[in-house]
Amino acid sequence: MSGTHTDVPTVLAHDLPRPVPVAEQDACPVGTIFDRLGDRWSMLVIVLLGGRAHRYNELHRAIEGISQRMLTRTLRTLENDNLVSRTVHPTVPPSVEYDLTPLGRSLLAPVSALADWALAHARELRP
């Protein structure tokens, strides 16, 4: 961004073609991350793991209403996206611990900014 446009948000710094081609929409990393993290459980898991690593059952107990199947699916997706790491400890029985990767930790600041904005504007947003 040039020195004369420092107050322009990066999302607005570039003009999009009109109409926006489907291929451009599909290739957009912003839309991709919103699609991946915009489900009911992913952000909650990321926020919980932002505090500290958790074992599977700790996460399951910490999230009311999530099924074991959905938690497993969410953790696998976040692991595949390199946001969560899974460590198996050689105990009997084996214990599994989940934590954020450095990439996952780097997501906490922008997520916090979005959460702060949402809380500040909650009354203005329509339900």
TrEMBL record:
Tell me yes or no: is rRNA processing among this UniProt entry's keywords.
no
**GO molecular function: any one?**
DNA binding
Where the record annotates domain HTH hxlR-type, the positions are 28-126
Q: Which UniProt keywords apply?
A: DNA-binding, Transcription, Transcription regulation
- Source superkingdom: Bacteria
Q: Which InterPro entries match?
A: HTH_HxlR, WH-like_DNA-bd_sf, WH_DNA-bd_sf
Reply yes or no: does the keyword Transcription apply: yes
Name this protein carries in UniProt: Transcriptional regulator
Q: Which organism is it from?
A: Amycolatopsis orientalis
